[in-house]
Amino acid sequence: MKIKVKNLGALKQAEFTLGDLTIICGYNNTGKTYATYALFGFLYTWRTLFPITISGNKIEQLLADGVIRLDIQEYVQQSQQIVAKGCQAYTQQLPKIFASQAERFKETEFKVILDTQNIRFKDRFDRTMRSANAELFSMTKSEDSTELVVTLLVEKEKVKIPVEIIERIIADALKEIIFDQVFPRPFIASAERTGAAIFRKELNFARNRLLEEMGQADKNIDPMELLFKDYDDYALPIKTNVDFTRQLETIVKKSSFIVENHPDVLDDFAKIIGGEYTVTRNDELYYVPKGKRVKLSMDESSSAVRSLLDIGFYLRHEAQLGDLLMVDEPELNLHPENQRRVARLFARLVNLGIKVFITTHSDYIIKELNTLIMLNHDKPHLQRIAEKEGYQPAELISAEKIKVYIAEKAPIILDGKKRKQEFPTLTSADINPELGIEARSFDTTIETMNRIQEAIVWGED
Length: 461
Hints:
The chain is of the alpha/beta class. The protein has helices spanning about 30-50, 55-65, 70-75, 80-100, 165-180, 195-200, 200-215, 225, 235-245, 250, 255-260, 265-275, 305, 310-320, 335-350, 365-375, 380-390, 440-460; strands spanning about 1-10, 10-15, 20-25, 65-70, 110-115, 125-130, 135-140, 145-150, 185-190, 275-280, 285-290, 325-330, 355-360, 400-415, 415-430, 430, 435. The chain is globular and about 95 Å long.
């Protein structure tokens, strides 16, 4: 999947391809967060924006005959047009995604380019729509079939759902079958996550107060407008972070596939934070340091513990195969050694089947990933080094799984012509299987510091 943007924040024009591990690095105010938030917003909302039309004749046939068969390939052939129209609709929603003025996005373009020849839709699909009193109709697709079979389960006189609702439900099923394998389910840990951890109680109190206001409000007031009025100033990724942190007492009731099949990943995460998180029956969130009989509130815990809270609960309770874990500056508040450990954690998740997308200023994360790339070869001396330094085979990663982009000024092709003038864009970084990632935005700074220090030490006549 390739994403193309124009006039998005600082980015004049840019494109990037989503890899198993995608990294955007570069100086401040160069568009990294804009690219991240725009991608998250699209993956979070595409189902509501993609136009799939079900013929009215088909609905009439369903009500008359009790069954219809829809050729899924027919809709696959329309997929590029469906995506293009969805992107146009999404571009119009960007002011809401970023909680910003529409004026800032009036020239913005956001496009997703798919390889439509290789779309692999879901093998199986089975869903039944119910009313309060009965099952209304079922939608099924068997493993070897390219048809979605919709079957009426009651007499048509008992179907009280409006036709347009039936059309939308069937269209949503087709979207899921065709595009769920293409667009990963996103989870984001924004750079504001530390604050959300601290003020979790206050956020719950504010929401409860709003609910009380809703109960007392005039009936002519839109309750949803009242409910979200305090959120209007926050971008969608921040809102989802806040909501995730607020709902921890519900989230802890679930277990991810990592808990069931890869508990060693959680052990590695516990080593990074030096303990574990816990939520009590009274909805109290604590951090419990390993080996100590003490529970610390988020106020009492370190900033590193707070910055990794979302990721910790995601790994234990939410993670699903095929997800996209997005982390804005994973190095926040972390010691260099823990930055290395986080890089190894990300590589493990990628190898398990979770895609990872990060923005970073951390030379330590990049260099640790380089080590994982360089050790990922079947050579005796590399195996000896990996064993000596404590690297596990599950942490090593292939260069082919990684895409790295540097947010910087560079010549771009604009309106079909290559411009000599440099504009803010995303430049693909070289990744060598033997040497790792060329992250020149870090290397230049490090080389400058080394040059100055060498001059200080050796520059005396």
